[in-house]
């Protein structure tokens, strides 16, 4: 984190296709579907690359039950 921006990247795996509210939240934060050729509505593998304000990531908290796992992309 630097200057209030999270820049390590996130690899996010969902238990199933995202709910409409989670889908909108992912888009707003800046996540992109990481499953090649899959529509966002059915996508269960998401990536966040680049820097985003840390305050945006807090919006994922209500959806933790839909998340299978998360990994940091550029940690360490």
Question: How would you characterize this protein structure?
Answer:
11% of the residues are buried. The chain has a single domain, classed as Alpha-Beta Plaits. The two termini are 12 Å apart. By secondary structure, the chain is α+β, with helices and mostly antiparallel strands. The chain contains two helices and six strands; from the N terminus they run ββαβββαβ. The strands form two sheets. It has a four-stranded antiparallel β-sheet, covered by helices on one side. Strands 1-5 form a two-stranded antiparallel sheet. The longest helix has 10 residues.
* H and E string: EEHEEEHE
| Global mean pLDDT | 91
- Residue share in helices? 10-25%
Question: What fraction of the residues are assigned to beta strands by DSSP?
Answer: 25-35%
CATH architecture: 2-Layer Sandwich
Tell me the total number of β-strands: 6
- The general outline is globular
Number of domains as seen in the coordinates: 1
| Computed Rg | 12 Å
The unreliable regions are none
What is the name of the CATH class?
A: Alpha Beta
Give the termini distance in whole angstroms. 12 Å
Blueprint (SSEs and pairs):
Blueprint: E1 5-6, E2 10-14, H1 20-29, E3 32-33, E4 45-48, E5 52-53, H2 54-57, E6 67-72
Antiparallel strand pairs: 1-5, 2-4, 2-6, 3-4
């Amino acid at each position: 984190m630097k200057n209030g921006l999270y820049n390590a990247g996130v690899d996010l795996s969902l238990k199933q296709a995202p709910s409409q509210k989670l889908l909108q939240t992912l888009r707003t934060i800046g996540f992109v579907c990481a499953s090649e050729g899959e529509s966002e509505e059915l996508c269960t593998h998401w990536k966040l690359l680049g820097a985003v304000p840390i305050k945006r990531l807090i919006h994922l908290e209500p959806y933790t039950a839909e998340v299978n796992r998360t990994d940091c992309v550029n940690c360490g």
